[in-house]
Amino acid sequence: xxxxxTNPAVSPAPAPPAAHRRxxxxxxxxxxxxxxxxxxxxxxxxxPDAISHVAEAHRAHHxxxxxxxxxxxxxxxESSHRGQMRKSGEPYITHPLAVTLILAELGAETTTLTASLxxxxxxxxxxxxxxxxxxxxxxxxxxxDGVTKLEKVDYGAxxxxxxxxxxxxxxxNDVRVMSIKLADRLHNMRTLGVMRPEKQERIAKVTRDVLxxxxxxLGVQALKTELEDxxxxxxxxxxxxxxxxxxxxxxxxxxxxxxxxxxxVRGVLREAGIxxxxxxxxxxxxxxxxxxxxxxxxxxxxxxxxLVLVGEDADCYAVLGExxxxxxxxxxxxxxxxxxxxxxxxxxxxxxxxxxxGQVAEVLIRTHQMHKVxxxxxxxxxxxxxxxxxxxxDGERTDGDGERVDPTRxxxxxxxxxxxxxxxxxxxxxxxxxxxxxQDREITVFRPDGGTxxxxxxxxxxxxxxxxxxxxxxxxxxxxxxxxxxTLSTVLKDGDTVQLLMGQDPAxxxxxxxxxxxxxxxxxxxxxxxxxxxxxxxxxxxxxLDTERKDGTPAPRPAHDEPAAPSxxxxxxxxxxxxxxxxxxxxxxxxxxxxxxxxFAVRGGVVTVHRVECAAVTRMKGLGRGEIAxxxxxxxxxxxxxVAESFQRPHLLADLTEAIALEGVAIVSATVEPPTQxxxxxTYTVQLPDAALLPDLMRAMRNVAGVxxxxxxxxxxxxx
Length: 720
Ligand code: MN
Fold this sequence. Notes:
Blueprint: H1 18-22, H2 30-39, H3 50-61, H4 68-81, H5 94-106, H6 110-117, H7 121-124, H8 129-136, H9 138-151, H10 160-171, H11 175-190, H12 197-217, H13 221-235, H14 237-252, H15 257-271, E1 277-282, H16 285-295, E2 304-310, H17 313-326, E3 328-329, E4 335-336, E5 349-354, E6 360-367, H18 368-376, E7 397-398, E8 404-405, H19 411-422, H20 426-438, E9 442-446, E10 452-456, H21 461-469, E11 476-481, E12 484-486, E13 498-502, H22 514-517, H23 521-533, H24 567-570, E14 573-575, E15 582-585, E16 597-601, E17 606-611, H25 615-622, E18 627-628, E19 630-632, E20 638-647, H26 652-662, E21 666-672, E22 679-688, H27 694-702, E23 707-711, H28 715-719
Parallel strand pairs: 2-6, 15-17
Antiparallel strand pairs: 1-2, 3-5, 4-5, 5-6, 7-8, 9-10, 11-12, 11-13, 14-19, 16-17, 16-18, 20-22, 20-23, 21-22
Bound molecules: manganese (II) ion.
């Protein structure tokens, strides 16, 4: 742990004035430099007076920075590396200079740059750590020591968790050490051409497996994208060349639809009186390659995205509102990473707009500060241990207690910094970290036509429908998942194949109930928008809201996850004061006596009954839906759905069904999912002559060899 670690509660600083925070900065041009390095001849035949470049880049981000430590660090590094050569034949000092320039352009603070200039001296020259401490202080010594130790971490055969643990130990969790390491790797990758091909490939693979994930997690987008392109060029030279050709062809075209749409957007925002910069951001090679794989045929607008930069958070939503009003939004593309930032600090609004001619442009909307963090991630945050008075971080604020509150730094980074000390062992540390990261994990599902959809983990068929069809998804009547009919509430898994069944009725209505299953903002917005413009369908008041859309639509309609219990059992539940009310047992939690239950009124006078602990209950209460008192009646016959998790073995199905039959229980339906990793899941809907038999039945099923769990489904809980 750094000796400089400072109690953040001391010396609160006022928030920097908005004007200061908003002041225009030179745009980070690493991406352009990187592309130039890839496309054209390298500029290494000319050694620039790089310390002045470093100073200039540093002053652009930190106008008041003291440059003296940089000058001294350069003098020491230059003299101690003198006589050493890079494999390319250049003086060795070009390397630490280039690494430092990369960090300076990203906005790193002076201490990091000083350490970066010295990062190879202790490893490769006579300079000692004591000497570094004497001349530059403990903090610089600590950072140089971290980079030197990190140098020795073997990225080789060890498992991912082990490699990360070693890196975190080596760096003492100091993200500044990691950012020096990333810049070091970037420069080495840029100059990899002088190495033998086998060595290039080996280094590229480690970069792909370790350094790029690290850059992603630290939010250093500018480094990550350039590293990705450099790795792509080495590991996939043919596809890389093809992508380069596509970009060259596109650049030679006469009209640029992106530029035209950008002009249209500028006009719209001018008209609305919103101050904003509208830029075109070319996609990097790997991103373009991904898009072309996904879409097959590239459109003129696929080569870049529009970037709208504004002053304040609220302006982002104002821009969004104007674009969605004046142009045609592609609602499935909308994502709000401002309200819900990604794990790696990234904040932005994402949307897409279509022109009259059908050309669609993706649009990113963010403030200047968000943009800086999006590009530079933790590097833009400065010293994570510094007291706020040092004002090294532009977006920094303090709350009333003087506690440092950085809106651009979500909990995961603080936890990352704290955990390793707290975690008793590497595995626990790693698994907690992974859980945190998993919140943002994306899954890919396949469409029958061979296309794919990227969805957040936990997404359901409802989300898939809106992702694929936009507002036309209102007409969705059901889905097949991996060939099997599935309810629209089904939570999708990575690799599932989803076929959405679309109705032909142009006046199709979405169900309000879909809101409970919509995980993505795109789906929620589309459904809510429809409901807002069709108030009659939403009925009157929170007690008469929901469901059974397109009443009377006949059966192959598994659209809702609540397969109505047969009428002989429905009356088992009685609505207080309304014995004649139509009752449905919710399929998400399949209540049976003596479960505690509660009801919600839905459209058409039907009352759905859930177990009180069902996640849907919490959600609906959160939406302001009124509960209706219900209780169990006299009937004892019930249907219930049970999921049995087992290890795969022969005759499992036969043994399970026999065990159920021996309990005197009838099987209404059964599905068996294809086994994964020797595990298999059976789902049975059974008819119990008496609800009291349920515990015995579950025990009997658990006693079947290979079965390790039997439970009533709780997939709804997983959906949120
Ligand atoms: Mn180095």
